[in-house]
Design goal:
This protein is mainly α. The protein has helices at residues 2-9, 68-82, 92-100, 109-117, 130-135, 137-147, 154-164, 166-170, 179-185, 210-214, 217-235, 240-250, 252-255, 257-263, and strands at 61-65, 125-129. It contains 14 helices and two strands. Helix 4 packs parallel to helix 11. The longest helix has 19 residues, at 217-235. The two termini are 26 Å apart.
């Protein structure tokens, strides 16, 4: 969201919380936002967690994937805090049970992946990976710019990378913490009078591989079995890493350095 907004605005941080300028599709009505109205900058942009079969059609879609092990741990650190669940009252095992039972309105990550994977070659779908954003933010910014038919200057690319880096966003985390949504829906979820306390930009930042290191072997086994039954059974891809590599090979115009560089002849791209 931050990358797209800074590319389209040229570096505008004049918002209290980013959902004000990039509405969340299924919660816009609750937040008194009109999805059909014009936005300050072009192209119009919306946040979504929806599976492919449920998302509104007719736009361009940037799909961000993350290793399910890391995503599960990150979700555990975020959701109970967002819902004001007393600290320590829910174990990670209980949280995983709830997710497997369907606690997430957006569905489970494996079927989510699968639905979007089937459309990975669609010209209006761009797959990106959390791990690539962490490893090489600049290339990810350029992929997004190409996908949106933008030709940013070298100066703007550098500016967007700086403003989308964890250290920059951490110092301004209140602008990325969902408090705008929370304040509009808290009465509906029984939290009227509560003050938002969750954060999405944690001090230490999300780390690649943290799930495998922190989750217990029984949980890891359950996650592997989910992968095997939903993704591997349909795609023959045995791991998340294989999925990433397969998608990158499917999108050479974005993941082949020479092809990406050809689109940005005025910008230096390291191979």
């Amino acid at each position: 969201m931050q990358i797209v907004h800074q590319l389209r605005s040229g570096g505008d941080m004049d918002f209290e919380e980013i959902t004000e300028v990039i509405p969340w599709d299924v919660l816009a009505l609750d937040c008194k936002q009109d999805l059909n109205s014009e936005q300050k900058y072009f192209p119009r942009c919306f946040k979504s967690h929806e599976q492919y079969q449920h998302i509104a059609k007719g736009g361009r879609y940037i799909y961000i994937a993350r290793n399910p092990l890391d995503a599960m741990l990150s979700f555990f650190k975020f959701l109970p805090q967002w819902m004001w669940v007393p600290q320590g009252s829910v174990t990670i095992e209980e949280f995983v049970d709830a997710i497997f039972a369907g606690a997430s309105n957006s569905g489970q990550i494996w079927s989510h992946f699968l639905g979007w994977y089937e459309h990975r070659k669609d010209p209006n779908v761009l797959w990106l990976f959390f791990e690539d954003l962490k490893r090489d933010l600049r290339s990810s910014v350029l992929r997004i710019a190409k996908f949106l038919d933008m030709q940013p200057t070298e100066e703007l690319v550098t500016k967007v990378c700086h403003m989308s880096h964890h250290s920059y966003m951490k110092d301004r985390q209140v602008k990325f913490d969902d408090h705008f949504v929370f304040d509009h829906v808290k009465a509906q979820i029984g939290l009227e009078g509560y003050k938002h306390r969750a954060t999405k930009v944690r001090k230490s930042g999300g780390k690649v591989g943290e799930g495998k290191a922190a989750l217990s072997e029984p949980i890891l086994k359950r996650l592997r079995e989910k992968w095997e039954s939903i993704i591997e059974s349909k795609t023959k891809l045995k791991t998340y890493e294989e999925l990433c590599e397969d998608v990158r090979k499917s999108l050479p115009e974005y993941y082949d350095t020479k092809k990406l560089a050809a689109h940005f002849k005025h910008i230096k791209i390291e191979s």
